Amino acid sequence: MSDVKSENIENAEKTDSPNSGGRIDHDSTWKDLIKKFFPYLLKRAIPELYEEADISEEPAFLDKEFTDVVNTSDPGIHKNPRYADYVIKIPLKNGGAEFVILHIEVQGRGGRGNLAERMYHYKCLIYSHYRKEPAALAIITAGRRKKERYYSFSRFGTEAIYRYNNLVLSELDDEELVSSGNPIDLVLYAGKFAQRAKKEPQKFDFLRKAVELFDERGWSLDEKRNLFLFTEIIVNMKDKELITQFREFLEHRNREGKAMYVPLLLRDSAAEIEQRGREEGKLEVARNLLANGVSPDIIEKSAGLPVEKIRELMN
Predict the structure, then answer these.
(1) Is residue 192 within 8 Å of 170, Cβ to Cβ?
(2) How many domains does the chain have?
(3) Position 262 in a domain
(4) Which among 132, 155, 171 is the end of a domain?
(5) 16-51 pLDDT per residue, tens
(6) Are 197 and 64 part of one and the same domain?
(7) Is 284 strand, coil or helix?
(8) Is-contact 247 262, C-beta < 8 A?
(9) Residue 157 CA neighbour count, 13 Å, CB half
(10) Which of 30, 33, 50, 198 could lock 42 by a disulfide, CB 3.0 to 4.6 Å apart?
(11) pLDDT, tens only, 1-14
């Protein structure tokens, strides 16, 4: 009996686009976090690969190269979302030419089509180009998914099943994340909170708690500042009065000689920047972030200025 069957174990929750209505592009934020804190994410998401990886060597991010590979005249491939989020070459401890290709996709509010099918599609393209089977990870930051997550099909006696690692924020344990010594875990905890926080006072209380949690850790000040900046963006507090109170809370801590964090400068609305003059408003944001020790690459995204302009402000 002929059997034609296509199955994808993935049920995305339908929401508005992350970029609609002035909302923050959470997927882009998570992708920035992955690149800046990659070893920590690897330790959390795929510990067996972390143990085999040579973390003393910088991984090579190949996604731009991979974009060129699939940049064809085929309209079904040429445009997004046919570009992989991250394709990373990770050296292994046994040295020589040994390495693994890791493919990472981030799935947030609204998603981008069928995640399982997309994972399989990229797996095939990666193997075709590099002649190497990839490891793969799907990071699901929002939405509901069925318990099993993989791609499979069966067609006239031909079958394939593609299973990959899934890091699902809603399934992580709060207590484990809070008590963890892994810097990435507190940001994952913030991501979990952001999914369920509906009221602005909840966000305010969480950010105050997050400051204390970051202070308890023995990480470098630069790491704590950058991780907390990501936390602010993910939590996305919007109430102007509470933002003012939170800035005052941070300034009070700074006067007491405690660790300095980036105030909620990124919550300046487009209208407020327009009132000060758009370009001058961006420069003001950049100056304040530089004064608080934030790296230029993060400021480039946050303030919307070219990195060359930011470096001019540093001189």
Answers:
(1) yes
(2) 2
(3) no
(4) 171
(5) 333 333 445 566 788 888 988 999 999 999 999 999
(6) no
(7) helix
(8) no
(9) 2
(10) 50
(11) 333 333 333 333 33
261 within some domain? no
Q: H-helix or E-strand containing 4? A: strand 4-9
The packing angle between helices 307-314 and 278-291, to 10°, is 60
What tokens does 267 get? Answer: 């919550």
Range of the domain at 142: 4-171
Q: Rounded to whole angstroms, how far apart are CA atoms 208 and 216?
A: 13
Q: What is the value of pTM for the model shown?
A: 0.73
79 shares a domain with 39: yes
By the 8 A CB rule, do 86 and 65 touch?
A: no
pLDDT tier for residue 145 given thresholds of 50, 70 and 90? low
Strand-pairing partners, residue 161, are: 152
The two three-digit tokens of residue 258, written as one number: 């405690």
Whether residues 143 and 71 share a domain: the answer is yes
Domain edge (last residue) among 200, 216, 242: 242
Cis peptide before 306 (omega within 30 of 0): no
Which DSSP state fits 83? S
Tokens linked to 157: 């006696």
